[in-house]
Amino acid sequence: MITRSEFYVLRLRSEHPEYSQRELSQCGGMSLGSVNKTIGELQLKGLLDSSGAITASGMSSLKPFKVDNAVILAAGLSSRFVPFSYESPKGLLRAKGEVLIERQIRQLRSVGITDIAVVVGFMAEQFFYLEDKYGVEIIVNADYARKNNSSSIYAARHKLANTYICSSDNYFTENPFEQYVYHSYYAASYVEGQTDEWCIETKGKHRLITGVTVGGHDSWVMLGHVYWSRSFSNSFKAIIEAEIDSPDTASKLWEEIYIEHIKELPMVMRPYSKGFIYEFDSVDDMRSFDPQFITNVSSDILDNIVSVLHCERDALTDFYPLKTGITNLSVHFTAEGNEYVYRHPGIGTERMINRENEVHALKLAKKLGLDSTFIYADSYQGWKISHFLPNARTVDPRDPDQLADALAMAKTLHASAAVLDNEFDFVDAGLEYEKVFESFNAPKPQGYEDLKASVLKLREQVRHEEWRTCICHNDFFEHNILVDPDGKMSLIDWEYAGMGDEANDFGTFCVCSKFREEEIDDALRVYLGREPTASERRHYWAFIVFAGWAWYVWALAKEAQGDNTGEWLYVYYTYPHRYADRVLALYQRDTQPTSER
Q1: Over the stretch 143-192, which tens digit does the pLDDT of each residue have?
Q2: Contact of 128 with 101, CB cutoff 8 Å
Q3: pLDDT in tens, 352-364
Q4: What percent of the chain is predicted at pLDDT more than 90?
Q5: Residue 142, Cβ neighbours under 10 Å: how many?
Q6: Which residues contact 491 (CB under 8 A, 6 or more apart)?
Q7: Positions of E strands within 395-512
Q8: Is the CB of residue 271 less than 8 Å from the CB of residue 277?
């Protein structure tokens, strides 16, 4: 095995036979004396000839260090790079006229690395053209939405050898790639002052990485590409194969797994000067690097915004994601000093929401003074622009005063003479969501049919009653009720609005507030302004069941489409599961449900 110094001299001689000793010294980071000494040693071993040219034996000694391939990770969602990550994977965006991932591929190919694999996931199909254009191998990571980038390494584990591991969204001002690499390394850049990046601790003149901390001060930080030697790859492959199915591994970056096994996985830090490697975590990062990015980027979202607000693209700033719901995605932005929200429709919503009905409802809500945020909504694609309410909070359903104000808003809506053309019935909606769920051939949960049968029996009982039909919001819960600093409430997100039973909104509000039984009864007294009659109580309780069941089936459909509804799937299920038969008994026996407390 050749030494590190011998490797650098041989590599440079193979790539630049014309270099003088002084040039070898400058490029290899060695003193001129060390270069001359190393050349002499290599000549004695027959790896360089008397003129200093590399011999056939010298080339053979480099073979163990020859880079076999590269794996480019491109499966992630890039959730911080909104709104452009809603339309395109970040690696396919252009910086200074070049597509980020294509620039990296060209840089790899220019040094002879042509075996390149791209691991895709989010909007995978947008990367497929690279196969024909550059001859890359496409590897699909089916777990990208459920697991972190460790799953991409696992998907590409058959490629791991002497391998560059790259991120599709990095930009290198100069080509960092080489045909031969001596040791596994992580690229790093120095950050002055406080940083939230992953800070590297090293020891020895070769800067062996001994630890990594998240956040630090005046530190070298992980930034850019990585190189894995064959021995490193074999060790990491064994670790990831052993750990990939562990629930704890799902959320881990591959770097976290590396840190946990740092003694088994020796890696050095390779420093790069400031401005060599760029990583764009936000739109502002990209604009700082490429001032023309906003002007030149292909984006229907920006076109939508400027067409509504009648401003120039350059006037749009301060993009950042708002808390992502489980129906849509929302991004904050500023235009000419005013703050706005752009809503991007979520996966599969076109099959579950009538956008034309929503637009009618939004216009009506604005006219009634219930939604002060609405500006414009598209009735075909489902995007929307609203005013952003600085320092607004969502209503607290467990605060007595806020509960009263929220339910008063619902009563105002229900008492209005406003009319929409469409109707909304929670049970019918649930049956429609069921069709979407079934279209994905997902297995139904155990007990699903029995629960559905109970809901349908209860609906038949309710149908015999005469009750008021009025305009309902139908998604009436705390996160859709904003309270500005002056206490004024705005009821937003009218996607499900329509004519329905006046108990619709009460049902959703209680379910989505996760109210216990006594809290539901207390809220009903507040809503009615008095003690409910037995018939009123059972009627409103029936809509607790209907709302819970409809949203439960909705959540099943979303999960079947690959969306993650988190705890809500269980929350929604709880109400029909606990109360459907008990409320049905109220109709059949005219008795009240017994408290579960």
Answers
A1: 887 888 999 999 999 999 999 999 999 999 999 999 999 999 999 999 99
A2: no
A3: 578 888 899 999 9
A4: 77
A5: 13
A6: 365, 370, 371, 409, 413, 473, 476, 480, 481
A7: 469-472, 481-483, 489-491, 498-501
A8: no
Angstrom distance (rounded) from CA 360 to CA 380: 13
Closest CA to 168 of 198, 209, 127: 127
Helix and strand numbers (H, E) in the chain are: 20, 21
- Please enumerate in sequence order all residues whose Cβ is within 8 A of that of 53, keeping only pairs 6 or more positions apart, or say none: 13, 17
> Which residues have a Cβ under 8 Å from the Cβ of 454 and sit 6 or more positions away?
576, 580, 581, 584
Provide the token pair at 229: 């030697």
At 430-487, the pLDDT tens digits run 999 999 999 999 899 999 999 999 999 999 999 888 888 999 999 999 999 999 999 8
Show the tokens assigned to 351.
């099959």
Predicted pLDDT at 476: 95
From CA 506, how far away is CA 536, in angstroms rounded?
12
Structure pTM? 0.80
Residues 6+ apart with CB under 8 A from 511: 477, 544, 547, 548, 551, 571, 572, 575
Tokens 């006219």 correspond to what residue? 367
